[in-house]
Amino acid sequence: MARIRRKERPAVGTNGTTGLTEVSREEDAAGEPIHVLIVDDHQLFRTGLSDLLSEQGLRIVGAAADGASALELVEQCAPDVVLMDLEMPGMSGVETIRQIAEIAPRTRVVVLTIDAEERSVIDAIGAGACGYLLKGTSLQSLVAGINAAVAGESLISGAVGAKLFERLRTDDRRSAVEGRVFEELSGREVEILKLLATGKHNAEIAQELFISPHTVRNHISNILAKLQISNRIEATAFAIRNRMV
Could you give the CA distance from residue 227 to residue 178 in angstroms, rounded to a whole number? Predict the structure, then answer.
């Protein structure tokens, strides 16, 4: 994702929001920090998280207390990543995610919430979230989730994944379409899909199979295309449904 170089001037929005105005785009801004927007209705949490992420070298371009204000700041600040709580007053987190996907398709949304319910996970991912992390996760994992989102990858908290994957393991319904598509995968693609489903990152897969990370990325792109799915979480679900892990 190309970075956005900004002329910064503090701005205060409604409902407890802060942001940056006078945004100008400049291509090839290599090395610029990832720009993050925090959306949560608790001011102390927003402030504390902003400080922690800033210490990790991320640039906090704004904070919003509700969905409507978040949408305004997404348009103003064009963040790389939005950290989104699901439980907020007014517009729901899921609906906010859906609208962000429409107005700013290059902005990635990572859910950061206390809600580990399966339905919430499915709804958020269906709306366009590319990561799902629980509050209380380590700072290292949170930063990894942000970096993964920028790289076009997806991370999901272990506790959430365990619940979701257990349901998938007990679901014996396998469509004929999936069976036919599965047969189209090459042996190497099957190997990579299995490793992907165990939570390994591209570099770890490359090391285990003695191939380059670039080759791994190419294989994953082919896998997603053949399975007609859009992200790694859906690929993992496919692998579990088909008893690959």
Answer: 8
For residue 135, give its domain range: 10-164
Whether 139 maps to a domain, the answer reads yes
Round to whole Å and give the CA distance between 67 and 244: 39
Q: With a cut of 90, say whether residue 198 has pLDDT above it.
A: no
Q: 57: closest CA among 31, 96, 23, 22? A: 31
Measured torsion, CA atoms of residues 49, 234, 148, 159, in degrees rounded to the nearest 10: 40
- Phi and psi torsions of 141, nearest 5°: -70, -35
Asked whether residue 81 is domain-assigned, the answer is yes
pLDDT tens, residue by residue, 5-62: 333 333 334 344 444 333 332 233 347 899 999 999 999 999 999 999 999 999 999 9
pLDDT tens, position by position, 75-124: 999 999 999 999 888 899 999 999 999 999 999 999 998 887 777 887 88
Backbone angles phi, psi at 90, to 5 degrees: 75, -130
The CA distance from 135 to 149, in Å, is 17
DSSP characters over 78-120: --SEEEE-S--SSS-HHHHHHHHHHH-TTSEEEEEES---HHH
Beta strands across the sheet bearing 131-134? 10-12, 18-20, 59-64, 35-39, 81-84, 108-113, 131-134, 155-156
Contact between residue 75 and residue 97 where contact means Cβ atoms under 8 Å apart: no
pTM given for the model = 0.61
Instruction: Out of 164, 181, 204, pick the residue that ends a domain.
Output: 164
Together in a domain, 43 and 158: yes
